[in-house]
Amino acid sequence: RRVAVLYAAALANNQLRGQLPRLQGLAQLRSLNVALNYLEGPLPPLHGLTELRELKAHNNLLRGPLPELRHLAHVQRIVLANNRIDGVLPPLAGLNALREFDVSNNLLRGPVPAVIGLENLTRFDVSFNRLALARGQASRVMTVDLEGNGAQPLPTAPLPDAPLDEDAGGS
After folding, report:
1. What is the spatial distance between Cα 99 and Cα 116, in angstroms, rounded to a whole number?
2. What is the 3-state secondary structure (H, E, C) of the chain?
3. pLDDT for 153-168, tens place per residue?
4. What is the mean pLDDT of residues 34-59?
5. pLDDT mean across residues, the chain
6. pLDDT tens, residue by residue, 73-102
7. Which residue of 2, 29, 52, 75 sits 20 to 30 Å from the alpha carbon of 120, by its own alpha carbon?
8. pTM, full prediction
9. Which residues pair with 21 in a beta bridge?
């Protein structure tokens, strides 16, 4: 028997093994939580999940590149930390509802995609990968965690001289 409409799949911490199945045909899926399992292989394409708001697949054995994310116009939370995901981060432009993006502790490399314009983004964690942040990419955002990235540091400009506050000196 087939499910007519699936809005949420809460399958976290169930000792699930194997690969995630194809998700096409689940256009109404809003939340997919398969965290804390033993899932392996690549993440399936997400382009048909137009209503997805939450994708949590952290603490698995997932590997391979991240799928294209630009079609996830309503997504608010993507948590894929503690896997073996590799390749480069796909562009995040257009994910205007995105509040949390956590791909920490994976095998990602290359530049961090621009987050300018993602006004709702409050948590952006790409720590413990092989990524580099270009100057001017962070906005007024949030917490940006780049700890543990083994990429070469980007050159930084010296801080401009700030005028001294005459009243703060205690003279």
Report:
1. 13
2. CCCCCCCEEECCCCCCEECCCCCCCCCCCCEEECCCCEEEECCCCCCCCCCCCEEECCCCEEEEECCCCCCCCCCCEEECCCCEEEECCCCCCCCCCCCEEECCCCEEEEECCCCCCCCCCCEEECCCCEEECCCCCCCCCCEEECCCCCCCCCCCCCCCCCCCCCCCCCC
3. 544 444 444 444 444 4
4. 97
5. 85
6. 999 999 999 999 999 999 999 999 999 999
7. 29
8. 0.81
9. none
Q: Is 134 exposed, middle or buried (0-12, 13-18, 19+ CB in 10 A)?
A: exposed
Residue/partner pairs of 11-15 with CB below 8 Å, 24 or more apart: 11/37, 12/36, 12/37, 12/56, 13/37
- Quote the tokens at residue 87: 């390749």
Q: Amino acid identity, residue 167?
A: D
